[in-house]
Amino acid sequence: MSFLTIFFALLFYVATFSLVAGLAYRIRLYIKTPAPLKIPTTPAPVTRTGVALRLFREVVFFESLFKATLWTWLFGWMFHFGMFLVLLRHLRYFINPEWFWAPLVWPLVGLVQPFGLYAGFAMLAGLGGLLVRRFAVDRVRYISAPSDFIWLFWLMGIAASGLIMSFILHTDIVQLKEFTLGLMSLSPGELPVDLPLLIHLGLVAVLMALFPYSKLLHAVGIFFSPTRNQVDNPREKRHLAAWAAKYDDTRGSRDSAEGQ
Predict the structure, then answer these.
(1) 3-32+64-225 architecture in CATH?
(2) Which of 40, 62, 72, 224 could connect to 230 by a Cys-Cys bridge, CB 3.0–4.6 Å?
(3) Could you tell me if residue 170 is left (phi over 0), alpha (psi between -120 and 50 degrees) or otherwise beta?
(4) pLDDT band at 246 (very low <50, low <70, confident <90, very high)
């Protein structure tokens, strides 16, 4: 194997470990973080089913952002939906049609290919709109940190390099698939030596490695937001955080003893 193949194979193994371990660590922190107050954003659902539907609308349609600012919602939804289609299209590099379970997902992967090909433009346009917003809107520019701009440029670099490979400087996708499938079996094939591909893979690997430690983790954090995942039932049911239950039980026993 060439030096580049070994380097990128090791880079993706490190990035994958960082992504999985980092997500596990952050999710564990989210689960253990106390939520002592009942603070759902109203009007809020009064049943768990309603909360599930609210989270679904928030994740898929960005409901609260749509109500807050239409232009930000448009650019944000364009980027996220475009990225979703692009990721579905990229599944073809990680699935062997000969695997016994592949026929279950292969039709979907084939169906999304033409849409995923052009979804990169929607992804890039959405990122461009969000970047302009960071500069053009005073209140947004005031609260923007350097990392906000870095991640926007980083994601634009991923989208742009992918589009260059798709429409201008094509790479050997058969050889690339041998490399990606080989990564999964710890025996990567030779990586095509194309500059746009190397840039694309390098940017993606760094994104994977740093994702759990960046603001991009809102993709996971939204499911643990108490303003979104709580039922609005403070009158019907007393809210008691799990970490405070043992102290509450102790106090209740002491109050009962003093009453006697």
Answers:
(1) Up-down Bundle (1.20)
(2) 40
(3) beta
(4) low
Task: Find all residues with CB under 8 Å of 112, minimum gap 6, and list them.
Answer: 85, 88, 89
Sign of CA dihedral 181, 183, 186, 188: positive
- Whether a cis peptide bond, with omega within 30° of 0, leads into 43 is yes
E strands, 24-159, where? none
E strands of 95-210, at which residues? Answer: none
- Among 13-17, 75-79, 93-97, 196-200, the range scoring the smallest mean pLDDT is 93-97
Which residues, in sequence order, are CB contacts of 72 under 8 Å at separation 6+? 65, 130, 133
Residues with Cβ within 8 Å of 68's Cβ and at least 6 positions away in sequence, in order, are none
Q: How confident is the model over 68-89, as pLDDT tens digits? A: 999 999 999 999 999 999 999 9
> Residue 33's CB: how many other CB atoms inside 10 A?
11
Q: CB–CB of 178/190 below 8 Å?
A: yes
Alpha-carbon distances of 130 from 84, 93, 120, 142, rounded to whole Å: 17, 29, 15, 15
At 176, give phi and psi (nearest 5°). Answer: -65, -40
